[in-house]
Amino acid sequence: MRLLNLLLLLLSVLGAAPFAPPPPLLRLPLSSIAPPPRTSPPTPPASPASASAPAASTSSSAPASTSTPTASASSAAPASSAAPASHAPSPIPVHPTPLDVRIHGVWYDLSGWLSKHPAGAHWLEWYGGRDATEVMDGFHSEKGRKMYTRLPRSFPPSRVEGLEASLGPDTPTQLAFRKLRADLYAAGWWQRDMRHEAKLLAIWGAVGLSAVFFAHSPLPHAGKLSAFLLSLFFTQSGWLGHDYVHGVDKFSDRMRYLATTCGGLAVTWWSTKHNKHHALTNEIGVDEDIATDPFLYTWAPSPENDSPLRKIQHLIFFVPFSFLFALWRVDTFKVALDAVKQNRPGARKELRYLCLHYAAVLAAFPLSVFLPAVLLSGLMSALIVTPTHQSEEMFEGYQSDWVTAQFLSTRNAVTTNPFSEWIWGGMQYQLEHHLFPSMPRSKYPALRNILIDFAADNDVPGGYRESGEFAIQKMNWDLYRRVARADPVPGAPSSRGDGQQGAISDFDLSPANALAK
């Protein structure tokens, strides 16, 4: 009973009970293993009127349910007129600090506001000279979106003209997506289904209580069963918390610290790292989710960034996968402590929740159960989060059309049974989540057909991409094997800043360079 009360204490801290809740360069095709080529920023057009949008697609937009890209393996960079423009905004005369961002056609200077942003700077630092409409809309509530007009405008007019000429107009795909988002919002797609939430929380709570029971049971192999159940509990704590951290409704606000208290993952760390991944998906040098070297490489590296482990990565991939959750936990504490030092709002409360998590878990479970559970949860989480992006296009430069970039860089997994549907935690609908991160995950299955039609109607390159849950794992493993067998490529971009991030830091490619230095 004492252990049962410990688990229920975690839930009571969150302000809700689980059983009765109250009324968020392209990556080379798979057949190619050379790194993406470097691209130079284009020369800015003479005037905004001469700027052109990315070329319209002429390829089929039918869903690619089981197919993979088929470019020649000798091709270092297959050209695609259907892809969105991949470039860094051209140099523009700037003051020492401005961070100019376009939102719904209006340019705002966010340099002074950046430090006051409640969620921190993170991805915003890399959006100088870019259109941030979809990302800002995706992360913010209706109340937050109404506050855009209070942000300081970019000035003088000649500067705005230069910014507009450099970036070019919104594409038809972007405009169509904004209409789709407005229509879905008006139709109530962001209203949370509380029955569905109750079911998910009840299953999650039952798994956690069962793990506690078997941890202290005299039955044969009870400890192993407890470790397995605890790993499921940790994994589902992450997926539930992921939904609530993204959420913009009142219930999500109440459940915001579920992943912190029950999964050991701080909200500050998650939002900093994960929101950056959403805003800069598969952008080399910035998206930390694809910076998995030196343990796992997804393209052939340059010799100075190579590792002997690469040659056997397809044989040992499960080892770094298993340590994923442990590394997340370590990073969580680093970020949480830094947040306290920076005096960020809620940082001390978050650190207390982390301490409560470890106090409760270590009181309820012996290390012989806890440590294997962390490793197994890491393996499960990595098998879910890595294949939906790593096998798709990657970008070394800025993507002017964020919507098309999400379609190009994301592949969904088609689950085959109720257990898989549950354990994937909504991550099988990766594209739905990337395009609408604050929408409750219960809406994603119904959203699938809408996005298939959207891709077809707007000639999105490659259409809506999805593969079976086992086929997508095989695609990812094949990628690891091909890269393992490849020779190093001199000049290949580094996943940690020799690409876009390095360009921003070292060259005047963006108004963000002053902040990045």
TrEMBL record:
Give start-end positions of Pro residues composition bias.
36-47
Q: Which SUPFAM superfamilies match?
A: Cytochrome b5-like heme/steroid binding domain
Per UniProt, which keywords does this protein have?
Membrane, Signal, Transmembrane, Transmembrane helix
Residues making up the signal peptide according to the UniProt record: 1-16
Coiled-coil stretches noted in the UniProt entry, renumbered to this chain? none
Cross-referenced PANTHER family, in alphabetical order?
DELTA(5) FATTY ACID DESATURASE C-RELATED, FATTY ACID DESATURASE 2
Q: What is this protein identified as?
A: Cytochrome b5 heme-binding domain-containing protein
Give the organism the record lists. Tetraparma gracilis
